[in-house]
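Lab notebook, bench 4. Still working through the backlog of constructs that have no structural model yet. Next entry is a single chain of 160 residues. Request: give me the structure tokens for it.
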Amino acid sequence: MQAKPKTQAKLETVAEYLAGLPPDRRSAIQAIREVVLKNLDKGFAEGMQYGMIGYFVPHSLFPPGYHCDPKQPLQFASLGSQKNHMALYLMCVYGSPKQEAWLRAEWAKTGKKLDMGKSCIRFKKLDDLPLELIGRLIARITLKDFVAGYEAALNGRRPQ
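Model written out:
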């Protein structure tokens, strides 16, 4: 009898996640993943989080973890394939009005349509994203600044 395939929420590795995607989505997610990894500040880690590829501050660097679920490391960004779209979740933008304003202004210069919620940029195909801009956004936020902004938000101070 064949083993039942794991649901996305049960996948344990990024490789398993990527292998389970249709080829077109796999190539898009992999391309974005490469941009994120190339521009991610030292100290952030990649792994599975919330059923998606996650980029986070490991407990070894920020022991309290995420305040809503301290078992989870502090999430910086995530990359996932949803039913009707793919998405790049940017907690680094969600918690920072300054970063959000920068992203929106820079995105407008690309001529591409921005389909964005509070933290999530939705897209149907890789060409919908300005990869160079995504790389610049990821590179401009250091681990130290991200944690400081998170702590400021928890303490009731408005992060920059």
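Notes after review: The longest strand covers residues 74-81. The chain has a mean pLDDT of 91. Flag for follow-up if needed.
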